[in-house]
Amino acid sequence: MSLLEKIDRDRLPAHIAIIMDGNGRWAKSRGLGRGEGHREGISAIKRAVEAASKASVRYLTLYAFSTENWNRPTDEVKGLMDLMVYAISKETPFLKKNGVSIRSIGDKNRLPEYARTALEECIRETAGGVRVTLVLALSYSSKWELAAAAKKIANDAVKGYLQVEDINEELLGNYLTTCGIPDPDLLIRTGGEQRISNFLLWQCAYAEFYFTDIFWPDFGEEALYKAILNYQGRERRYGKTSEQLEFEQ
Length: 249
Ligand code: IPE
Ligand code: IPE
Ligand code: MG
Known about the structure:
Blueprint: H1 3-6, E1 15-19, H2 23-28, H3 34-54, E2 59-66, H4 74-97, E3 100-105, H5 113-125, E4 132-140, H6 142-158, H7 169-174, E5 186-189, E6 208-211, H8 221-232, H9 242-248
Parallel strand pairs: 1-2, 1-5, 2-4, 3-4, 5-6
Bound molecules: 3-methylbut-3-enyl trihydrogen diphosphate (IPE) (2 copies) and magnesium ion (MG).
Magnesium ion (MG) binds at residues 21, 191.
């Protein structure tokens, strides 16, 4: 039985979020430049999208570039932007053919214009895809997102569009860039680090965390299925007791 066949279709994570880490170390371990690692990382993205689609995962969010990544050397930032533009433009037909729609979260205003244009074009072109929603976190960080949401809520309150009493968890969720996307069930981080690096802090309140030492460029179909199977072995209690959950079934 293959790993894919072992996955219980009744208990799928609806949304998997991935912190794709380890491109630089993958390249270094081969005596290559960091850019090579990022290039190889693109192939891993394609494999992950295909695997998620085969496993019927509805939402896949990929942390592609963080707010903090703007502090990397200028050459590396430029290389990452160019690679992103190249990849989404080249892969738009593949995405369309496979029913993948693209969405982005993050501060699009900080992206160079050519990157923003390419991204918006890809979002428009793939809008009809209903199989998988691929959410690209670009120039994203949770603290940025939460501060931006607070600003918008305050503005709307000042203008009288909402009352302070209306502010609750649901309303705040609607002001986040992830509005309409279910919270991640499973958060995967590759590359061996065990931290969240300012990613989906609000949305991962009840996500299951899965860490693997595999560097992102080496992450493939089987690795994704392994993570899903590990997730399916967990008991999600949401604060309740095991006995309560058994009784509810
Ligand atoms: C992840 O790989 C890709 C991005 C952050 C854009 P890294 O570039 O962080 O690789 P390491 O962590 O240095 O190995
Ligand atoms: C997190 O990786 C950001 C992305 C994967 C895009 P980093 O490599 O930038 O995170 P830190 O610096 O190790 O926390
Ligand atoms: Mg890293």
